[in-house]
Amino acid sequence: MRVHTFFESLPFTADPYQVLAAEMVEMGRSVVVTAPTGAGKTLIAEAAIHLSLANRRRVFYTTPLKALSNQKFRDFGAVHGSDRVGLLTGDNTINRDAPVVVMTTEVLRNMIYSGSDLSQVDTVVLDEVHYLQDRFRGAVWEEVIIHAPPHIRLVCLSATVSNAAEFTDWLRTRRGPTELVVEEHRPVRLERWWSVWDRFEREVHLLPLYMETSGGMKPNAAIPRLLARRGGRRRRFSTPRRTSVVERLAFLELLPAIYFLFSRAGCDDAADRTVAAGIRLTDDAERDEIRRRAEKGTAHLDWSDLRTLGHDRWLARLERGVAAHHAGLVPAFKEVVEQLFCDGLIKVVFATETLALGINMPARTVVLDRLSRFTGETHELLLPGEFTQLTGRAGRRGIDTVGHGVVLHSPFVPFKRMASIARLGSHPLRSSFRPTYNMLVNLVANYSRRQAERLLAASFAEFQDRRLKGRPRGNRPGRRSPRRSTLLERFDRSRRLLEQRGHIRDWTLEPGGETLRVVYNDSGLLLVEAIRSGILDELRAPELAALLSAFVYEPRRDAEEAEGLPTEPLEDAWSRLVELAEDLAAAEERLRLPVTRFPHPGFAWLAYAWALRIDLEELLDEGSLAAGDFVRTTRSVLDLLRQVGDAARVLGKGELERAAGRARSGIDRGIVTAGGVI
User: For the structural domain made of 518-678, what CATH number should be given?
Assistant: First the structure.
């Protein structure tokens, strides 16, 4: 088989599961691969790329995150040559006609709906396919699986899930011959540790969380006995300081480490405290190399922007072997940290949990600062599957013989509960599929009503509910499953709303419906109605960027309320938009539909000022918004301006299309342009 030539060319021996999955791809079958983090699932994708290129066909590699897409774009470009690899992430397009194209999953969904020519694409890799359970974006993965042309084989790469066979069974109903390949073995064994500060002995203890017994691995009984020791009036044991944990790990030669915290401020504070404590984890040669590579990685940024971003403070941390990694950092800073850490120059990264979502940064040790996190509404303990995902980075294949997962003592989490969370495990994959307005108009455009309903019935959500219906759960024979009823009824209610508002008539799209096909924002229906009603027509380019920012800006919990808007035309447009949003919300409530997210003007002043070419230092001088958030939000505005330009073209609004183009030119500059490829 051709794929064997690929594996024989490698400087190492591939695992049997990798070879098996690649053989299935060469035989023309789709595959579902589930394996622990760090087990080498990407090698299967590389084998699939080898096969497609050998057959002179194209291959698409999709990821859930722009950062992960950018990383894969760089990786594949280094292997196949930059001229043979492209990147599509909504706000960025590079070499879109290349034989290998990396993209976010939404981009592929949009290509399918728009009728893009995919005849030369024979393979699509869906990396991190377990994202289909994400309640905000998960439906996109099901849309791709359902609507992708039948000649395309899918390579679905997933973290370990407990119902992989069920997911594969569903995939067969949609894609034909599909094989499940399961790898349960971690390539590097994981040791789990419990860490506590002992006030009497003035020391950080590190004890095994689980012990090998004749009955298998059991929670370490010595830990509750230790905690039972009294220290008089003072509590003897407490959560160790982060700096003390770092020093202990360094002493035990357990670095490099990823230290997971669940807040950005916590990451920055921990990095600063580590430096302030005088901890130095690098030698002179490493410091010189860190400085050289950090300067090279930020050379494209203006010196005044670097000053605003706190470059000197950031570099001082790096030179000590310490870094923070979170969404508040600009892309260039995150990229430098990732590359330095992967090359062993950074020894400790304090990171939020987003680092566990696909970015390739293996470590010797992973530390969990706590076993609970704030969900936006309440604090919840981690699930065993989440613990497994976070500690999956522990253990570098080919370097470490064992990886280490360290859990810090908490007086608020009983040891028995802590041990149950750390027992390792997986959780079932649950569909989050729901019909959206954009999905609905694309179904109307491409299928008959009966076909559209059949496609809804073909979702993983319906498949799972039919299986539940077959179990003895109290459902009467012949009764429709609750989820099926919910999906179809919501679809019908959404259709009625679009009919009432003039976007559909007799299963045919009206101009508003045609426009909605090219707008993918969560509040797309509101935006299309704003465009059609002329709310955007009189706005100058900076004002247009400011108003559209309300559709993409997501304020943090501690964000201050916006006070007014920069210009009278913008104030007037905002008032009309609010009135329209309230009218749409009332219509949705009458039909018992989820209410479209209300726009938020909290970024409008920043977008307006940036479009007028105000300096970054002046914009962010009060620290109200992290630089990384500014870049990410502005690039989202860029993407939405492109969609508005497309919508204006559909409606024949030439001046609005030109204004959208001018607005894009005005805000796509400096640090925002630099954020296009991370």
Answer: 1.10.3380.30
